[in-house]
Amino acid sequence: MILKSNGKEVATDVDFACSTLKQIKGLMFRRRVPESYALVFVMKKIQRVSLHMLFVNYPIDAIFLDEKKKVIKASSLRPWIGTCSCNGKVKYIIETSHGKSERLGIKQGDVFEFDNQCQQD
Length: 121
What we know:
The chain is built from two helices and eight strands, in the order βββαββββαβ. With about 120 residues, the chain is mostly beta strands. It has a single domain (about 1-115), classed as Protein of unknown function DUF192 (Jelly Rolls, Sandwich), CATH 2.60.120. The strands form two sheets. Strands 3-4-7-5-6 form a five-stranded mixed β-sheet. Strands 2-1-8 form a three-stranded antiparallel β-sheet, with no helix packed on it. It is globular and about 35 Å long. About 30% of the residues are buried.
């Protein structure tokens, strides 16, 4: 489960993309993202990142977090042609259903709570 610091539930069905291959695949080829779902990318190191929507035929929200799970940026991406980058130092990216960031009032500086399910190097 992913929670915001104010206790608002963001997702109850959570997958983790730990490997480079899983991160490249992301949400490609899925038909949709359920409202209760989130995919958490865990970067091997803190870095600048960019996302693409190739082979994703529905809009999504992407939330970029630093190593302390603090929101750096939240964006909505358009199907197929959407791209987004974050120049901040990103450790986690959360991909979830379109419009969720706005509906829950997620903004820069908010802190997420979740257990990292990826093995640490």
